[in-house]
Amino acid sequence: MDEFLTSHQTAIRLSFFLTLFCVVALVELQRPKRMLTVSKGKRWLNNLGVTVLNSVMMRLVFPTTAVGVAVLAESNGWGVFNYFQFQSLWALILAVIILDFVIYLQHVLFHFVPLLWRVHGVHHADLDYDVTTGARFHPVEIILSMLIKVVVILSMGPSASAVILFEMLLNATAMFNHGNIDLPKKVDGILRLFVVTPDMHRVHHSVEVNETNSNFGFNLPWWDRFFGTYIPSPNAGHKDMVIGLPDFRDEKQTNRLFGLLLLPFQGLNAKSQ
After folding, report:
1. Contacts of 270 (CB under 8 A, 6+ apart)
2. What single DSSP character describes residue 241?
């Protein structure tokens, strides 16, 4: 199974991404939670433009993918899972949960370390909130995130299947919980027991500092509850809350590709949190 998934990972992940993206985008059209303040076409062009740039950059900077690192670790017996030969269905589930916890910790780190916040703030500077926001990250953040992932995979030694499953789940939930989707309150209440929902994560994109520094989870919602970083809803309500960063309200800075790439060098610091 690992060999098949590794050989076809690009096709599998791309197909999965495009399918989920289209589904969330269509639901946004049918059941939007909020009115957008910037034209969808303009935002999509720039948010997806930086996504394409990141994909090309990753190919150039890293000789292999996270899955390739997992295969390398397994072939050399590196990492806790490989050392103890812990490779079963339970090992796969445990690896996915641990990797998700690492993403939570990484996200917290990127908020509270000023230099890291400079690059992560590009994600928060989006003046609106929809499926493309979930793919809007500065190239430097993508590189740093990959380096963290490599260290964790080499230390853990998860199977290639676990890494592929985790990355597919992370992509899927990032698109889902950034969706401009109006879920029925009861449905949202049930879902957020198991997965981060759009209403839960939208709080994290508020201009209010205490709300920005809450609800860090992307996939599993448990970490925020356990570590006390959970806020159930924004003070102003989902339809009236202000999205983005208080000091960056100029569309030319925040919603143009060149502008958002320069944001970390234009005063995007800890004070903007």
Report:
1. 114, 117
2. P
